[in-house]
Amino acid sequence: MNISQLHHKELAIAKSLLENPGLAVKITNFIGSPIEKGLALLPANWNKNIAKVTEKSLMKASEAAIFTMKDSPGEISSNRWHKLGVAVSGGVGGFFGLTAIAVELPVSTTIMLRSIADIARSEGELITSLETKMACLEVFALGGASDLDDSSESGYFTVRAALAKSVTEAAEFMVKKGITDETAPLLVKLISHIAEKFGVQVTQKAAAQAIPAIGAAGGAIINTLFIDHFQDMARGHFIVRKLERLYGYDTVRTAYNLLPKHVS
Question: At the top level of its lineage, which domain of life is listed (predicted)?
Fold first, then answer.
């Protein structure tokens, strides 16, 4: 099935959002120095601790962010309000430094997941759908460099393929059993896989905030870049999913991979 010219343009926009330089580049452009300087300032046990914090943040966000939203597919998303909320939490986190990230990250992640769900709804998704909720969580794994990327396959579809089994297992079990204690291990497994990718970008954010003189104002701006990045990932992701509902997964994936990464 051939994709219409209008939808082909939408797909090109989605790929431009999903495959262009990620969070580290945006932050480096803002702070005016390589993010590696900030990485060197992070505590020695950072990587071990951040894995626990990101998993906890994603789990709390998944419990709180989407379930109070109403279904109204096509409604325009409220990106600015979500950015304001994350900026405020980033300002507080920037004021108290790295010690506050365990408190700040669950708050900002919940706001971001709600924003992601809002964008999903604006692209025609049903928020009450379990599949949509899983797709919203997937967004946190997008937009980072993948060791599996090659010239024939996009980083975006590589990440989706890597998560597919965990997403399917969790969704199928929840359809049968609902969200129960029995479901928890499968949801934890999925979130653990997503947290591996999300943790890289959380580390990039923390590295920028670790640079001296960033402070509260800088923390607010970095958090704004943080949510802006995931709003871009969400917009691209749910445009692709919308087109997949119209044309099928294989058709959209083939057309996507034939597009250049950088669309003018």
Answer: Bacteria
